[in-house]
Amino acid sequence: MTKPESLVPFFNPRGVVVIGASHDPTKLGYLLATNLHRSGFKGAIHYVNLKGGTLLGKPVYTSVLDVPDPVDLAAILIPAQFVAPALRDCGQRGIQAAIIGAGGFREIGPVGLELEQDMLKVAAAEGIRLLGPNCIGLLDTHLPLDTTFLPPPGPTPGDVAFLSHSGAICAAAIDWARGQGYGISRLISLGNQADVSETDLIGPTAADEHTRVIALYLEGIRSGREFIKQARGVIKSKPIIALKVGRFESGRKAAASHTGALAGEESAYNAAFRRAGVLRAETSEEMFDQARALAWCPLPKGNRVGVLTNAGGPGVTAADALEARGLKMAVFSPETLKTLAESLPPAASLHNPVDMLASAGPEQFAACLKAMLADPGTDSVMVIYPTPPMHSAGAVAKALIPIIHQAEKPVVVSVMGERLIQEAVEHLRAARIPEYRFPERAAAALAALVERVELLKHAAEKPLMRDDVKTELVREIIKTGQKDNHLTAIETARILTAYGIQSANLKLATTEDEAASLAEEIGLPVVLKVASADISHKTDVGGVLLNLADVKSVRGGYQNILAQAQAALPDAKLTGVYVQEMAPPGQEVIIGAVQDPQFGPIMMFGSGGTEVEGLKDLAFGLAPLTELEIATMLKRTWAGRKLGGYRNILPADIPEVEEVLIRLAQLAWDFPELAEIEINPLRVFPDGQGAAAIDVRMRLIPV
Amino acid sequence: MTKPESLVPFFNPRGVVVIGASHDPTKLGYLLATNLHRSGFKGAIHYVNLKGGTLLGKPVYTSVLDVPDPVDLAAILIPAQFVAPALRDCGQRGIQAAIIGAGGFREIGPVGLELEQDMLKVAAAEGIRLLGPNCIGLLDTHLPLDTTFLPPPGPTPGDVAFLSHSGAICAAAIDWARGQGYGISRLISLGNQADVSETDLIGPTAADEHTRVIALYLEGIRSGREFIKQARGVIKSKPIIALKVGRFESGRKAAASHTGALAGEESAYNAAFRRAGVLRAETSEEMFDQARALAWCPLPKGNRVGVLTNAGGPGVTAADALEARGLKMAVFSPETLKTLAESLPPAASLHNPVDMLASAGPEQFAACLKAMLADPGTDSVMVIYPTPPMHSAGAVAKALIPIIHQAEKPVVVSVMGERLIQEAVEHLRAARIPEYRFPERAAAALAALVERVELLKHAAEKPLMRDDVKTELVREIIKTGQKDNHLTAIETARILTAYGIQSANLKLATTEDEAASLAEEIGLPVVLKVASADISHKTDVGGVLLNLADVKSVRGGYQNILAQAQAALPDAKLTGVYVQEMAPPGQEVIIGAVQDPQFGPIMMFGSGGTEVEGLKDLAFGLAPLTELEIATMLKRTWAGRKLGGYRNILPADIPEVEEVLIRLAQLAWDFPELAEIEINPLRVFPDGQGAAAIDVRMRLIPV
Q1: Which residue of A has its CA nearest to B112?
Q2: In the predicted model, is pLDDT for residue B3 greater than 80?
Q3: CATH number of the domain that residue A521 is part of
Q4: Cβ of A387 and B316 within 8 Å?
Q5: How far apart are CA B97 and CA B74, in angstroms?
Q6: Which residue among A104, A171, A418 places its CB closest to the CB of B180?
Q7: Is residue A397 within 8 Å of A413, Cβ to Cβ?
Q8: What is the ipTM metric for this complex?
């Protein structure tokens, strides 16, 4: 639960006590005490250890009860079994925030879990917020404050806040930051998250004036919707980029629908991050590469990139990398081309990528960059160069920096090489200009800026909900279904109707005669489908007959379907046969919803039919859906793009598909007891003629 | 043209003359002279400059004619217009190999192109092989020899040969190598490739005993099949990894078939690299990351990886990265688990990834790695660790090295961080063990080793060709078609038959009466299709009617089709209407071939129908096809996987599909005059019942 005010002592303590401070330099309790001592923390520092004595020029108290004012944060690094009693003392002493560095809790098994629960009980009783256990601590380079027990040196002050579910990744991140030349504002190791979670810390971290971007290493999120809410609340001013690992850990679930089988944890995280406006990094390196660009660059207005270089190869490589990331090569105006021509030798290539040739020096780099940035057709620029043969890479960097600082468009630099270009690198880092050794990484950084613009649009959107839905009616139908944990095709059709989604007319026949008379009532030709709570995929058991044109075929079909289904699944209880109108032709799509344990209902859209899992032409989104999310889902799938018409396929009723998506998402949102909902296919008629659910599956969560 | 013996002077000259050697330290001619002087080259070194004098303690001759023996290689760095005369002198002097560093040729436009052609004429007349022009030169760190004009320092000696179409990338590569701690054996800048190309150099480079891997930066390949031949000739002993850029440069071609529209340059390169056994790197960084692993590691037997780490986060990150690259986590035997348990504390995680916990020291790393390598279920190992809190990363590296050296399985190491882990990095580099700062890059390196094993299988395969094809008959039919640059459906069916591919029976009707009698002859129901050389996509113009069950429908259909087609395309010349048997139901696939300008015929396989471009369920391969290539194409597409059966879709006749692929590839190989060949759909009947081409398109190259 987020109670931001209770987290204040973690980030602005008046006094910190280290419980378990050690004299022994080989002990983590010694490292913690010295890190805190050396951090430059301006508040009071206290040490507690049963052995007493003095440490770093201060008395070591034998109990936290003896620690003088001010003290409002405890950093506890003692064996697990002693943590709960220590917390009780902290409570008595009036301390309401504690960092539990110690391991030996939940992560080691049942014994540790019990210790963790005992500790939590004490913390709750004493009103203490906990970071950890099993964490490395937190540090703030600007306050400054360091409660970690990592070997020095710590990170340099900077703009990137890093929150991590892994302590080891924290240690690596500090060193990566040092190697790649950016600073860290705050680093928080979350450990087991017995109390405080990544979600709780988003708001307080974004509120930090020194933090310009939040980078997250996540192994999972417990309260998905709260995470989205917190992220959406801050991302307008503070970008968030996340590396979510553990992608391949989730095993296959048993599922009754295509949606249930396909809308896995990964789809849910992707949909959730998009709704939250959180960038998802593919690799650790990419996360920090992109975090720098997000922290330092203005946002581009679009995706048209100018490339400035002093050789052909780097230009082609950059163009490839940019296009692979979905960016476009800018097309320059005649004025820009004229300015470039004035600065460059005749053999130079003026068109994007601009190849100034190997002779180009600092002035030419600067003049060309200026001209490219002034072009209204350029949204951002990548400068890419190996050390120019006749100039120093550093001199070029120095000439570029003032132009980049004046620009309102983002510029990233790829200085190719490693050791020869260190001077250039140092200049660029000091000027807070993102620089990369390899052009592909620079391209990825620019792509992250473009994606952030897109994500800000997503996060600004409001989910769509319709007023004309009959919630009470659906509740009643579900209640009936829950009695035998099954919704019949008649019931699912009624539920859809209650939410304004049209189904093909369908009735249940329990005798051959009834089938015949229903067929005439509905109007021939008709479709027959087996009715059984035990049969999920009806076509697989020969349980569907299409286009029966006369009563005789209907009668034969009735018997035939029952016989086939019984033969295929002898144990299935057959209720009869549904008689359904034969809907007119149209395009067919699948629309489904599934309840994700972390994020609630996830929507799926794509190519329907029986080959859904094979074709995998699918897109996912978070329910309830927004207009932009729906547009994105349609654009990302062939099924969606095809709705606009293709060759001899007529344009279909897109607004109706959008409406079904909105309403099905709303249904899934309103009724978490519907574990899976799937329309497959939704037949979409030509433009203006609507759509009809042809086959519908809903699975109830057993009560 | 490859004449390897004529290239000997480039790689083992007895004497080198620098034509254009300069006294002026700001000139490239000075850098070249000093690089050669400092390189330690053991042969004779001579300088030529019109001004004469002495340079670096040697006389400067005013003409190459004056240069004494021995001299067999010229490095020429003078303005473009003087190169041809200098070459004439070289020829007179008996020099038969020259490196032309100078620019100002083809790359600057028509004037330069003329100079290049003049130069080539002289070279041909004098029997001189040329490297360049517009190149940086070549160097060999072991010979040693350095004819580049790059600012020092040059690369350290090593195992990686680098051949590049871009000189700037050469310069960057030397510096990247220095930064990432591997050496270079040979570096060759190819420039404009007026004579010697990347293909010519593959053999001589592979023959170099110091080269263990060949890395290529390619902007294109001119003689595709020769490149494949050369590469296949060496890759068993010397792996080749290529970065091919310029992916997005090729514009859309006008094409008459789906295959023509979709089988672009990129598909051709991918298919060609696979046949050649060449690994394709996605990025510059990846190329050099993977080159190190290829140079230093034994090959794995399979794709099962053990991960050894000292913390949870790195283990999950590594597992994710490995699985994202298609590798599998190894499952350890009970013996391995027992050995691991003996080395580790009880809270450690013994199952893959093995988390030894933060307390793990060098001995534990070594013991666990040894146990994992001994497990028959482990094909390779990734060791991943941030600096252990209580030990040095360097000490761990030192303990790992002897185990890794003894192993017959590949081991890569990801030491996470940057500056804190430099000691570890230095140890590993000196021991030639691939190490990476980020786990994802280590995973990519292991994946490259696994891919190399796969590629060796591909390169070892023989293309399949059938003897029972009627080449002469096809030649005659094509000759007829060439008269009006068109092959009719009757002709394409005859061509397929001649190559043993069955088509659905089809005849041409030019009157309604003829259509009716043909329908009865073929057997009702039938299909009608418009016949016209001007109509490529018949369904788009209402030119196809299916399942006509009686003569009356056939008659009506005949008129209807002609009317529709005429209305849709008033200018199209209609020849009549084809009457075709209505083939029994089956699965439908597309099989096509297109002539690629670099690589000759490329095959396409996948989901057919009218939505080929939308679904993009396609795989490509090089004709003629091998058994493994066909298996790969089927496995990579849903259309191919589905042939084995899926839900209520019956298993189809896979051997027949394979046979059609073999035979169509052979047809495309035998007849380059067939620019595009496409069967769409090939209807594949249930297992054992064959397949039939339902619709066929062939486009002739205009003669």
Answers
A1: A347
A2: no
A3: 3.30.1490.20
A4: no
A5: 6
A6: A418
A7: yes
A8: 0.94
